[in-house]
Amino acid sequence: MLLSIIVIAVSVFLWFRRKRRAAPSAAQLAAEGWLPPEQQNTDRSFADHEAIALVAALKRGDWQPAARALEATGADWDRRSALAGIIADEAAKEDVWLRAWEAARPGDAGAALVKAKAKVTVAGQVRGTAWAKDTTAEQFAGFHRILEEAREDFTRAVALAAPEDPTPYIAKIPLYTGTGASHEQMRELWAEITSRTPYHFGAHSSALWYWFPRWHGSEELALTFAWTAARTAPPGNLMTMLPLHYWYHHMDDDAPEVAYRSVDLTTMINAALMDVAACRPDHPSLPGARHLLAYLLTKQERYAEAVEQFRLLDGWIAATPWTHYTKPALAYCTYRNEAITGARRASR
Known about the structure:
The chain is 68% helix and 0% strand. The protein is mostly helical. The model is unreliable at 3-21 (pLDDT under 50).
């Protein structure tokens, strides 16, 4: 018995020593171009310089770059939705510039869209992110009051938008989720969206939340929605990320390590990697997909593949799963460094 304990202790010691030797120092990481936690940007998931510039302008009270950016998206509905969300987040903090925009351009579709989205953002801030049992009656009352106000804003945004523009319909999904719209109402809204843009990842990701058991669906409905999109969308639309999103949000917290190496999860990750490889490089949802894949690949001990993703992401970490940690930059660097160490060790 004593001999067995000694053998195990020696084995563990040697394993830790090998791991420590393989781990790169901060100086080595810096020399290879990897950034430390304090240099990770926690506001963006990628180097979106246009968004950074227009947010800076909005903070100065200048709405015109935001208006021009929305107009320039044309029929790139993925980009239009992403930019509208960024601008609306700023309007939820301070809307003096938005009121100036509306006054200067009455009937501007972009301003109407931003106003409606900002109302939903404010409503979410009033409610908070706690479970229903931990949310006060006052928070719920404010939440529902603001969402009811947002209905009129969305009606106006839809009326002002170009007929082919799905963006105001997509932006209504959180409103439907928050107000508990019926399944029939949600499916009617979904028909409006998919008739205009059948493979909009942001729309699918937002709608998946509606079908989550926590909101207005069930495990069966959520998985059916996710897998239908994943199996029918052409490559490059990132729909294979939807089953992974469901797995992460419902399995990750309590999953044993062995669950990360299951055949099902491996199959999902492999399909998502092919989808990511086929995706256009400037797709606004691509970095988010890479962030989740980098995390899951590290958990699977597929370190070299994880490093490939981390290399494309380093410096910009405002994405799942890092945003779920109290110290996102530290969490990101911990997993990134584990992947780098693991890849190095495997190559020796």
